[in-house]
Amino acid sequence: MGTRTYGQFCGLAHALEIVGERWALLLVRDLAVGPKRFTDLRRGLPRIPTNVLSTRLKELEHAGVVQRRILPRPAAAVVYELTEYGRDLEDVVLRLGHWGARSLGEARPDDIVTTDSMVMALRATFRPEAARGAHVGFELRMGEIVVHARVDDGELAAGAGELPGADLVVEAGPRLRSLLSGEITARTALAEGSVRISGDSALLDRFTELFRISRPVGST
């Protein structure tokens, strides 16, 4: 397949030739959560034109980042998933996501949140050094989006859906970012109603210790 090149013999330049096109890294982000059908990917990226989605998937397949697999049950369906080579991008995507969140600012009126973006946000902001000895489960709700995080002694398992028996259920909106970055405290978030919880309120402080967006140097 024809690919625009930078004309440089450089690992970074080559990486950008593979995943630097518009939407490519967001496809990697969503596939890092788990295999998906074409329709699942389209639903998670509602603004991507169908032809662009097809093109990006073909490009990523050609580069050995994505592969197709047929699921025989309940009915034959093709899913896309990251290859072993593609999974090596997960740490890059998490670090880049955290880096971007540091200066994300307020949500724009037409911005959306997806289940996969929230799962990856939990993974990106998790602080394993602060979670040693911790055994706690969180359920996070943002409108219709429901994700969960189970922390066990420095290890994180984050995924879509409810978490039965969660120690804390957090209902939040766009101000969640301000809470995780330390721009507002848990007490302020609860007082202003931008965050609602079910469970021990002290666990909201613990949540912000375990999931944190570091602020850019020099920010106020």
UniProtKB/TrEMBL annotation:
HTH hxlR-type domain span: 10-108
Coiled coil: none
UniProtKB keywords: DNA-binding, Transcription, Transcription regulation
PANTHER family on file: TRANSCRIPTIONAL REGULATOR, MARR FAMILY, TRANSCRIPTIONAL REGULATORY PROTEIN
PROSITE patterns: HTH_HXLR
Keyword Transcription regulation on entry: yes
Name the record gives this protein: Winged helix-turn-helix transcriptional regulator
Species of the source: Saccharopolyspora taberi
Pfam families: HxlR
